[in-house]
Write a structure and sequence with these properties.
The protein is α/β, with parallel strands linked by helices. It has 7 helices and 5 strands; from the N terminus they run H-H-E-E-H-H-E-H-E-H-E-H. Helix 2 packs parallel to helix 5.
Length: about 180
């Protein structure tokens, strides 16, 4: 049985919205824009990744015999590896899931650079990387192409939500996939 080092990076908590944009309606959109435009969001992400690296290194020091191929890192995609902020801002933080899916199909999401670098670091070290997203299976090709643009393409498995799985089921889907 593999020893698993699971790094689930849910970094941008103010943008995490469990499959709907209901949570965004309760957030001050001007504050979000200001935070993003001043680089505070990028600073937060960088700090979270640096903290994760420190914790990983501490753990690895306590496990001197562990081999990278016996480890796993798990990454979410949206607002973790890929940045959907540009879409959300364009839509004034009010959009339907169909509009979001249409935008995701274009493969236009940029990387969250520190997280992408961490993913690449794991891949380069031989760690098994698994991706877990609330995106529907119908977006697989666009999602894979979007990730390949940023050197994060050698993952073990990309878990995507079945097309018949509604937005209210994203949390349950992710928990079940993570347990697999």
């Amino acid at each position: 049985m593999k020893t698993t080092l699971a790094i689930v990076l849910l970094l941008c908590t103010h943008l995490a919205h469990a499959g709907t944009n209901d949570a965004l309606s309760n957030i001050d959109h001007d504050l979000m824009r200001d935070s993003h435009n001043k680089g505070l969001q990028a600073l937060f992400v960088r700090d979270q990744v640096n903290n994760a690296i420190l914790q990983i290194n501490t753990w690895l020091e306590q496990q001197p015999d562990i081999q990278p191929e016996k480890m796993a890192a798990v990454f979410d995609i949206d607002e973790t590896l890929l940045d959907t902020y540009a879409f959300m801002e364009t839509m004034d933080f009010s959009y339907s899931l169909d509009e979001l899916d249409d935008w995701m199909a274009t493969g236009s999401a940029g990387p969250l650079q520190p997280v992408q670098a961490l993913c690449k670091m794991f891949l380069d070290a031989g760690v098994n990387v698994y991706l877990l997203t609330g995106r529907h299976e119908a977006l697989r090709a666009a999602t894979e192409e979007n990730l390949k643009q940023y050197d994060c393409s050698s993952w073990q498995k990309l878990y995507m939500r079945p097309s018949n799985n509604g937005s209210d089921q994203i949390k349950n889907y992710k928990l079940a996939a993570f347990d697999e």
